[in-house]
């Protein structure tokens, strides 16, 4: 009897998960399964460039040069010109009518972790990607935002010597670069308090907030930092309930939602929510398909999750496209903690 009760209980508990998975399956999957991506919204569409995948050939470094875009009016993802070569951990950022891709790791004779300083610009009329600038240093696994018309990039990994091509050839940095999309030049601003990589970031009413990340040898970080552009300084907000890295975050209804991320024993499933009204964090649910190395964007008043992998490292990469709405629409994130 006890065994039957356990089986029945487990079946009941699985019903919401199966329902949500069924809902997610109604959206068109990415043409390729990819992880370690940084999607952006450009012209009211979700854009994804490059990525790495356990399902792509090792001969090409398990990475892709493909670029795709989608919005809810499309039945399928649309494609444009490829990047100059396959790359992963490339930061994609739209500003005005321009779309840029910054850095990333590419495949070379030295390995599949050749860190690049490329700044690529997409020409929609010609359907081409062009190298238009170089960053001050090769940079990957960074996060960014658009402030006062400039693109800010902070943190990530950069080579620490003349060697470049393997993951261990790069180390975490705290540097903060400011890119002018008109002059295609860089300057520097206040660095992070500590070096880190694989953070997530969001913008909210002109504010830029960087969440978590990791330090090599130091594990995942729970810190949440806000950059005050007019004062060129970082201020500390309430920490997340747990450190996250390789996660994704997006803003909806005056709240930040954090999804996924990896730790040494697996992938995070709890959905975290920070309410700007209260300045507090809560766990508001569980994501039935936990992912790391995924992307998250807000489009048409919904948070969309893209790609990622369900196991740590380069394994079980996904072609996921899913709306978080079924899971967070009833979240009481604005309510203060009891």
Secondary-structure map with pairings?
Blueprint: H1 2-24, E1 40-42, E2 45-49, E3 67-70, E4 78-80, E5 87-88, E6 91-95, E7 98-102, E8 105-108, E9 111-115, E10 118-123, E11 128-134, E12 143-147, E13 150-154, E14 157-159, E15 170-172, E16 176-180, E17 185-189, E18 200-204, E19 207-211, E20 214-215, E21 219-220, E22 224-228, E23 233-237, E24 248-252, E25 255-259, E26 262-263, E27 266-267, E28 270-275, E29 280-286, E30 295-299, E31 302-306, E32 321-323, H2 325-328
In short:
By secondary structure, this protein is mainly β. The protein contains two helices and 32 strands. Residues 46-308 form the Attractin/MKLN-like beta-propeller domain.
What do you see in this structure?
With 338 residues, the chain is mostly beta strands. The chain has one domain: Kelch-type beta propeller (Neuraminidase, 6 Propeller). Helices cover 8% and strands 41% of the residues. It has a four-stranded antiparallel beta sheet with strand order 1-2-3-4, with no helix packed on it. The protein has a four-stranded antiparallel beta sheet with strand order 6-7-10-11, with no helix packed on it.
Tags for this entry?
four-stranded antiparallel beta sheet; Neuraminidase; 2 helices; single chain; globular; 338 residues
């Amino acid at each position: 009897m006890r065994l039957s009760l356990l089986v029945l209980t487990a079946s009941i508990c699985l019903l919401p998960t199966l329902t949500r998975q069924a809902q997610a399956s109604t959206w068109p999957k990415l043409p390729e399964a990819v992880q370690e991506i940084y999607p952006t919204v450009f012209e009211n569409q979700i854009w994804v460039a490059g990525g790495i995948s356990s399902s792509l050939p090792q001969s090409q470094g398990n990475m892709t040069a493909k670029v795709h875009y989608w919005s809810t009016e499309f039945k399928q993802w649309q494609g444009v010109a490829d990047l100059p070569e396959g790359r992963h951990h490339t930061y994609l950022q739209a500003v005005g009518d321009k779309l840029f891709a910054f850095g990333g790791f590419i495949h070379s004779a030295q390995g599949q972790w050749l860190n690049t300083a490329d700044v690529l610009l997409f020409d929609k009329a010609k359907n081409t990607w062009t190298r238009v600038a170089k960053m001050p240093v090769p940079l990957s696994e960074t996060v960014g935002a658009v402030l006062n018309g400039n693109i800010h990039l902070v943190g990530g990994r950069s080579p620490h010597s003349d060697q470049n091509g393997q993951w261990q050839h790069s180390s975490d940095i705290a540097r903060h670069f400011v890119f002018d999309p008109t002059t295609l030049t860089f300057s520097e601003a206040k660095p992070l308090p500590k070096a880190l990589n694989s953070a997530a970031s969001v913008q909210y009413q002109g504010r830029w907030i960087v969440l978590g990340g990791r330090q090599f040898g130091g594990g995942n970080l729970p810190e949440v930092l806000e950059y005050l552009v007019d004062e060129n300084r970082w201020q500390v907000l309430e920490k997340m309930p747990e450190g996250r890295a390789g996660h994704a975050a997006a803003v909806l209804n005056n709240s930040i939602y954090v999804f996924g991320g990896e730790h040494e024993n697996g992938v995070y499933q709890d959905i975290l929510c920070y309410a700007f009204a209260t300045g507090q964090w809560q766990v508001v649910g569980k994501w039935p398909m936990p992912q790391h190395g995924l992307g998250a964007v807000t489009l048409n008043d919904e948070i969309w999750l893209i790609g990622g992998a369900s196991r740590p490292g380069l394994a079980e990469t996904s072609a996921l496209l899913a709306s978080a709405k079924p899971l967070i629409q009833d979240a009481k994130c604005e309510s203060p903690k009891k």
